[in-house]
């Protein structure tokens, strides 16, 4: 059975891309389910799947993450990973769907959990907003705040991988888009605009028809207004996602022994130890590791799932996780040290 993907909100579950995409388990809110029932549900998932990866937005109430940590502690299990994400709600749902797609492949649980940080860097997530006066999750200047109070002012905001904001209709500089083929997913709020379809589709060379879905309930709170159209450009195809993750060199967690990619375990959150003076340049088992100051060494890319073909998008040719040691990033992106959008908690 594939590694189980669980989420803390039903809004994080998008329709599958095909009949082979595993489903996601929606964990009930803590206020609607007793702790012993949550423990029983988690034990059932572990018995049937071996490992569980729980994706929880950082914008969720603290009690939600606390419940997952309490369940893991009561079960005394190191097979439950809590992956936090500060991606906008629609992009977080896309990330969950990509993890679901990859869960049906031959990746180990540790690689799958730590891959969330890599995948988040290839999501171009934003929104068209009727006002930015209450937007506090993306850097906004005072001038934009004041302009946002003007009637009819609309803004296009990119939350990641590199934050950017423009005022629509003011000879704006185009939003920096992906340099690899993507598809566009929209979720409409109370703002009437076709700007993403008329501007982003040709400007970002979006492939295929624009997909639409219901606006996540958390989106108005995340963006500070219900007058919005949320969008995310993403890699939709399993072959490309598979090759992207398989092209990254794998390490072994020195604490729990699971495989990982990048510089931090997705299950126990232990970082890779720094190379010692006596064994500098060598990781677990004596295998060569590249110092962070030099170019990363790619590992041999894994095979594509049977019957599929695909190419790794630009920005991961070196085979490193963005935000990890010597991480490769798409042109123009500057991710923070832990990678954009996701983190793992012990």
Supply database-style keywords.
5-stranded mixed sheet, globular, 13 strands, alpha/beta, 8 helices, 6-stranded mixed sheet, 346 residues
Overview of the molecule:
- With 346 residues, the protein is of the alpha/beta class.
- It has helices spanning 35-49, 62-75, 89-103, 109-120, 142-147, 195-203, 219-223, 238-246, and strands spanning 4-7, 25-26, 52-57, 80-85, 124-129, 155-160, 164-167, 183-188, 211-213, 228-234, 250-252, 259-261, 342-345.
- Strands 7-6-5-10-8-9 form a six-stranded mixed sheet, sandwiched between helices. The protein has a five-stranded mixed sheet with strand order 2-1-3-4-13, sandwiched between helices.
- A hairpin with a 6-residue loop joins strand 11 and strand 12 (259-261).
- Helix 1 (35-49) crosses helix 2 (62-75) and helix 3 runs antiparallel to helix 4 (109-120).
- It is globular, with a radius of gyration of 20 Å.
- Mean pLDDT is 82; it is low at 278-304 and 317-341.
Mean of residue pLDDT?
A: 82
Summarize the main sheet. Answer: 6 strands, mixed
Oligomeric state of the chains in view:
single chain
Instruction: Choose one word for the global shape.
Output: globular
Please state the structural category. Answer: alpha/beta
Number of strands: 13
- Please report the number of helical segments: 8
Low-confidence stretches: 278-304, 317-341
**Can you write the helix and strand succession as a string?**
EEHEHEHHEHEEEHEHEHEEE
Task: Output the radius of gyration.
Answer: 20 Å
Strand content is 15-25%
The strands making up the biggest β-sheet line up spatially as 7-6-5-10-8-9
Overall helicity: 10-25%
Distance between the termini: 25 Å
């Amino acid at each position: 059975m594939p590694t189980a993907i669980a989420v803390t909100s039903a809004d994080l579950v998008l329709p599958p891309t095909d009949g082979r995409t595993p489903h996601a388990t929606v964990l009930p809110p803590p206020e609607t389910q007793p702790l012993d029932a949550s423990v029983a549900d988690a034990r059932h998932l572990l018995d049937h799947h071996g490992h569980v990866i729980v994706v929880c937005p950082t914008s969720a109430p603290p009690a939600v993450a606390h419940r997952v940590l309490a369940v893991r502690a009561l079960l005394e299990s190191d097979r439950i990973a809590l992956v936090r994400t500060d991606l906008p709600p629609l992009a977080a749902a896309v990330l969950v769907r990509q993890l679901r797609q990859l869960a049906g492949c031959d990746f180990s649980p540790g690689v799958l959990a730590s891959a969330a940080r890599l995948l988040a860097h290839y999501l171009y997530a934003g929104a068209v907003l009727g006002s930015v006066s209450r937007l506090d999750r993306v850097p906004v200047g005072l001038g934009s705040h004041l302009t946002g109070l003007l009637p009819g002012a609309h803004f296009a905001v990119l939350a990641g991988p590199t934050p950017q904001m423009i005022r629509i209709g003011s000879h704006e500089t185009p939003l920096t888009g992906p340099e690899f083929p993507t598809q566009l997913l929209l979720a409409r709020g109370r703002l009437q605009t076709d700007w993403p379809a008329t501007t982003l589709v040709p400007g970002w060379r979006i492939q295929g028809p624009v997909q639409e879905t219901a606006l996540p309930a958390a989106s108005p709170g995340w963006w500070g207004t219900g007058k919005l159209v949320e969008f995310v450009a993403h890699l939709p195809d399993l072959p490309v996602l598979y090759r992207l993750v398989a092209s990254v060199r794998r390490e072994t967690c020195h604490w729990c022994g699971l495989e990982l990619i990048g510089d931090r375990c997705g299950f126990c959150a232990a970082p890779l130890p720094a190379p010692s003076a006596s064994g500098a340049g060598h990781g677990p088992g004596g295998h060569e590791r590249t110092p962070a100051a030099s170019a990363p060494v790619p590992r041999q890319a894994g095979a594509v799932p049977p019957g599929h073909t695909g190419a790794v998008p630009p920005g991961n040719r070196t085979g490193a996780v963005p935000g990890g040691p010597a991480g490769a990033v798409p042109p123009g992106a500057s991710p923070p040290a832990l990678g954009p959008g996701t983190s793992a908690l012990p």
